[in-house]
Amino acid sequence: MDIRVGDIVKMKKQHPCGSSEWEILRVGMDFRMRCVGCGHQIMIARKQAEKNIRLVVNDPERLKKQAEAKPVQE
Ligand SMILES: [Zn+2]
């Protein structure tokens, strides 16, 4: 899984605040993530994080595919 700093990821489990989106602040052996909903920060082992991530929201490859699928109309 290709995850970079600044990516927003959706986790399988919801945070108690109701948001399931997290911003990646640091990658390495552990990920530092900030809850988009409430700003709460956690450190989580990379393996654990990858297991819990449902999708990377601003994955450039995915955005590119979306852009190609929806040509701009004038
Ligand atoms: Zn939260």
Task: Report on this structure.
It is globular and about 45 Å long. The chain is built from two helices and five strands. The protein has one domain (8-69). The chain has 74 residues and is of the alpha+beta class. The structure holds zinc ion. Zinc ion is lined by residues 15, 17, 19, 35, 37-38, 40.
Please sum up the structure shown.
The protein has 74 residues and is an alpha+beta fold. The chain has one domain (8-69).
Low-confidence stretches: none
Percent range of helical residues: 10-25%
Based on DSSP secondary structure assignment, what is the total number of beta strands?
A: 5
Determine the strand fraction and express it as a percent band: 25-35%
Shape: globular
For the largest beta sheet, what order do the strands appear in spatially?
4-3-2-1-5
Structural class designation: alpha+beta
Which ligands does the model contain, each kind named once?
zinc ion
The number of domains is 1
How would the blueprint of this fold be written?
Blueprint: E1 8-11, E2 21-26, E3 30-35, E4 41-45, H1 46-52, E5 53-56, H2 60-69
Antiparallel strand pairs: 1-2, 1-5, 2-3, 3-4
This protein binds zinc ion.
What are the salient characteristics of this protein?
74 residues, alpha+beta, 5-stranded antiparallel β-sheet, 5 strands, 34% strand, binds zinc ion
